[in-house]
Specification:
- The protein is of the alpha+beta class.
- 22% of the residues lie in helices and 22% in strands.
- It has a 3-stranded mixed sheet.
- Strand 1 and strand 2 form a beta hairpin.
């Protein structure tokens, strides 16, 4: 499962939305988000292009062999 988290595009950069797997501390693009961002600031933020591209690849890739999504029910 994945979630969207607002944070700097790069250290000191503009605010963007990143994709992060739940129970991890690193975004798909490799950023560690340590600063809390308030909702008002995040409303107009764009999206991290690297996170979005990697998330797209994850969602279109075939399920891994042996995963619950790959088995017949």
């Amino acid at each position: 499962m994945y979630e969207m988290c607002a944070g700097a595009e790069k250290p000191g950069g503009t605010l963007v939305w990143h994709v992060m797997a739940k129970r991890t501390t690193t975004t798909l693009c490799g950023q560690t988000l340590s600063q809390h961002v308030d909702g008002a600031s995040a409303q107009r933020a764009g999206h991290c292009s690297t996170c979005m591209a990697l998330f797209g690849k994850l969602m279109t890739a075939p399920p891994a062999v042996g995963s619950p999504a790959a088995t017949d029910h």
